[in-house]
């Protein structure tokens, strides 16, 4: 694995402040928003740079021959990590690209009855992708969104999903595919994705799981889950550099994924496929699906090759997945209580605490529920969330996403192995002061 091995020889590092030595944070910066863009340990950064140096030393041999070999090794590593065959896993740059790949490859029925089922917490870009597909298909497909009042228990969440499928059919529509998260973005809550996937399977609806916040945070038991499509960002919680997501498509559905985005050299038009049947061709060691995703154009995709190093780093430096999950989930839950107490508000959770069975916690803000209210930031109007986020950056050297959800302002904090409860105490103090300023300015 190269230079990354140097950092792996000393064994596990205690979680909390001591773990920060493995990351590149600026002095005084509090990284409380790991969930948005992730961050990469310096050992994995060095491994990525080593691979880039190898590429630059001999660009053509590396890109044409060495890269595919390393890519296969990386795919094998993530496949083993998830318990699935290597042939079912490829890499794309991010979860949104994976979602786009699925939607743009769907062939919609010409009677115009197809529907995409989604929840009101769907990630913005993914929801807009569904809208775009509806528009460009000339309404051959449309979106049905499930609106809920939060918090809601998992059983009620699943019941609402079943009802949406039934309602679609009662309306003379055809529910073709459903998109839902493992853990949604804003708010960052864990959804009952396992039960939703089972409903899809029993109802004959394709399941597209946006697991952007999946791999490296929760146990993705893909053989048991058995989704139709799943995409998960490795650069968020698995610790690879940015621009790396695994895209899982079981072999039964691979023929549906005709093209990558953009279309690659691996694409085979149907005419060419028919011609190949007439002549003798050498057997391929990779499927059409695998070859399609092997090279989709020239860009910096070195991050794809760092997955083995990231998995090994997590095992040796962090002590393994279970240790990471236990620490970060408990930290988010206990830290969220501390912050909510400091603000005199509450954490977004349900009675069974499944929302907080993850590394993210959402806290209600004690500011007026005025979504459209504008404030002045350096002579220009901005909304409340923008003002608060910029203030946190400039005055507190941190960032926490502030968002409007169901009639109130909330913010989200990420737990991670380099944080501890004292960081949440500090976050509560910082946000309390920022809220004081907001309330003062709003009168």
TrEMBL record:
Keywords: Pyridoxal phosphate, Transferase. It holds the Pfam family Aminotran_5. It comes from the Eukaryota. This is PLP-dependent transferase. Residues 67-341 form the Aminotransferase class V domain. The keyword Transferase applies. PANTHER family: HERCYNYLCYSTEINE SULFOXIDE LYASE (PTHR43092:SF2), L-CYSTEINE DESULFHYDRASE (PTHR43092). The keyword Iron does not apply. GO terms for molecular function: transferase activity.
């Amino acid at each position: 694995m190269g230079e990354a091995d140097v950092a792996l020889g000393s064994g596990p590092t205690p979680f909390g402040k001591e773990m920060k030595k493995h990351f590149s944070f600026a002095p005084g910066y509090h990284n409380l928003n790991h969930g948005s863009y992730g961050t990469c340990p310096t050992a994995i950064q060095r491994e990525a740079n080593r691979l880039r140096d190898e590429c630059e030393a001999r660009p053509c041999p590396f890109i044409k021959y060495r890269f595919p070999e390393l890519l296969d090794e990386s795919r094998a590593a993530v496949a083993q990590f998830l318990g699935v065959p290597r042939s079912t896993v490829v890499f794309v740059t991010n979860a949104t690209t994976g979602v786009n790949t699925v939607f743009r490859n769907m062939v919609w029925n010409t009677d115009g009855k197809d529907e995409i089922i989604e929840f009101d917490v769907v990630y913005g870009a993914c929801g807009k992708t569904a809208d775009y597909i509806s528009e460009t298909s000339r309404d051959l497909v449309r979106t049905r969104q499930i609106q809920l009042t939060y918090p809601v228990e998992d059983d009620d969440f699943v019941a609402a999903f079943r009802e949406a499928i039934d309602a679609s059919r009662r309306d003379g529509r055809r529910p073709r595919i459903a998109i839902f998260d493992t853990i949604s973005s804003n708010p960052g809550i864990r959804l009952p994705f396992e039960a939703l996937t089972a409903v899809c399977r029993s109802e004959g609806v394709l399941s597209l799981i946006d697991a952007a916040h999946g791999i490296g945070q929760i146990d993705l038991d893909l053989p048991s889950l058995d989704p139709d499509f799943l995409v998960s960002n490795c650069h968020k919680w698995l610790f690879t550099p940015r621009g790396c997501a695994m895209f899982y498509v079981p072999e039964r559905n691979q023929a549906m994924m005709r093209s990558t985005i953009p279309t690659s050299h691996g694409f085979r038009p149907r005419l060419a496929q028919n011609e190949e049947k007439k002549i003798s061709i050498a057997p391929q060691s990779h499927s059409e699906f695998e070859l399609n995703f092997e090279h989709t154009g020239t860009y910096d995709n070195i991050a794809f090759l760092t997955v083995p190093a990231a998995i090994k780093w997590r095992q040796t430096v962090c002590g393994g997945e279970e240790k990471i999950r236990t620490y970060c989930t408990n930290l988010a839950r206990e830290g969220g209580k501390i912050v909510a107490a400091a603000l005199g508000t509450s954490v977004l959770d349900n009675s069974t605490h499944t929302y907080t069975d993850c590394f993210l916690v959402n806290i209600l803000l004690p500011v007026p529920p005025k979504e459209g209210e504008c404030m002045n930031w350096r002579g220009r109007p901005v909304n409340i969330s923008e003002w608060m986020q910029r203030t946190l950056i400039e005055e507190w050297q941190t960032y926490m996403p502030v968002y409007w959800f169901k009639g109130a302002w909330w913010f989200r904090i990420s737990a991670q192995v380099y944080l501890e409860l004292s960081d949440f105490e500090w976050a509560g103090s910082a946000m309390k002061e920022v809220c004081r300023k907001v309330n003062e300015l709003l009168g």
